[in-house]
Amino acid sequence: MTPLWQRLSPLARGVFLLAVLAFVALPKQSRAIEVDLSSHLVAITAGFSGDKILLFGSINSPGEVLVVVRGPDADFKMHRKEQVAGIWMNTATMRFEKIPSFYAIAGTGPLEEIASPTTRALNGIGFDHIGLELPVTKAAGRIAEQWKDSLLRNLLRAGNYQLASAEIVFLGEHLFKTEFELPANVPTGSYSVSVYHLREGQIIDARTTPLSVSKIGAEAEIYDYAHHQGTMYGIFAIVIALVSGWMGHLAFRKG
Questions:
Q1: R_g of the chain computed on alpha carbons
Q2: How far apart are the first and last CA of the chain?
Q3: In the chain, what's the furthest Cα-to-Cα distance?
Q4: Residues 96-106: what's their mean pLDDT?
Q5: Domain range summary for the chain, segments of one domain joined by +
Q6: pLDDT of residue 236
Q7: What is the mean pLDDT of residues 245-251?
Q8: Do the strands 51-59 and 175-182 form a parallel or antiparallel pair, or are they unpaired?
Q9: I want to staple 91 with a disulfide (CB 3.0 to 4.6 A). Which of 65, 79, 82, 169 is the partner?
Q10: Separation CA 44–CA 185 (nearest Å)
Q11: Which domain of life is it from (predicted)?
Q12: What's the confidence (pLDDT) of residue 234?
């Protein structure tokens, strides 16, 4: 049977192609920014030591570009240690609930210069707008700021929070790229990568693309088993430790 395309007249083919080109071209003209990732999946295996994610995109008009990578929300518990009778002990504990487990920003300029305070507040951009503030029922004033600063220091030191550590590079007038580093202890889960096109501190367009960080292979199976069958996993670990110790004891006796 002759394919439908070959059965069309030259005029019909031309009309069809013009319609397709118009359909493809028109939406792109209305989009101020286009983005994509080098990979939408980061696979964590036994030898995982960190990874880099390449983001690339284009803008169709002058302006600034801001990229925000946000990991799944998690709870964090902080401890304050003090010397009591010469011994360091935990004297206070604070729990931060449902805050990003990973947060990184890259921009074509300092965050405070390319995004207005209103834009940052409305879109949850920056450490001051991602839910790190403690309720007054837990802590207030200077005490609350001390807990928040301690949490930020720990997350920054671990590499799970990165502020303007990545550079956005333009490849010509419209194309740009940037890289984000994921540490070896990067949390697993679903991430969102939001890219904003700004002008005079205001967002004129934005795109969000997903990123998944997941354990695969034997490590994933062990991780799932440990979390879903905690009792059996604990017993199995104790048995392995006892057997290993007994075999080591036999080896030394023979030696």
A1: 26
A2: 82
A3: 95
A4: 93
A5: 29-72+98-215
A6: 54
A7: 60
A8: antiparallel
A9: 82
A10: 10
A11: Bacteria
A12: 59
